């Protein structure tokens, strides 16, 4: 299967550090890898409603924002959550997109979980804090979400910066970006599980 990367941009501003860092990493992808970039600020999902236990589940219209994101998610072999660090976790826009995954698990004729199983989740984030470990909650959110979905997890590319463009001064992050998507992405595991051997 040809690899197809979906970059889900979760910043509440344009041309921010997270997108810059994600684009640096994406530059290294081979030319035959398809890329789709979707800004959640430009494609606003409606408030998430928890209809999991209601009987009527309908597939969203393909020309709606929800349909666009569902179809893009299903078509991707690799999903890159490019979210700035907001209050030590993913941004609200990103969280809303992930909340929609819960609804899509029950969308008829989609088989969302089986489709995503074995595919790869990656993270890219920019943060103002110098100490990277404050991003652990974001990393945990993405790792655990991947584990729940039976996905592989490629880890999170972190870069430092506050004002837009500052991440380009983080030379260590730019160096990590060069090889980020070439890394192994093992099957994600919850912390209480034994590490995957494949
Ligand atoms: C609502 C909000 C919450 C933030 N929370 C954090 C935080 O918890 N830790 C941190 O280091 N930086 C925090 N920041 C700073 C951003 O992570 C930083 O400016 C980052 O570069 C923004 O990425 P962007 O340019 O892609 O939007 C926060 C910024 C905003 C707007």
Automatic annotation (TrEMBL):
GO terms for molecular function: oxidoreductase activity. InterPro entries: Flavoprotein-like_sf (IPR029039), FMN_Rdtase-like_dom (IPR005025), ISF_SsuE-like (IPR051796). The keyword Flavoprotein applies. It holds the Pfam family FMN_red. Residues 5-124 form the NADPH-dependent FMN reductase-like domain. The keyword Flavoprotein applies. Keywords: Flavoprotein, FMN. SUPFAM superfamilies: Flavoproteins. This is Flavodoxin. The lineage of its organism: Bacteria, Bacillati, Actinomycetota, Actinomycetes, Kitasatosporales.
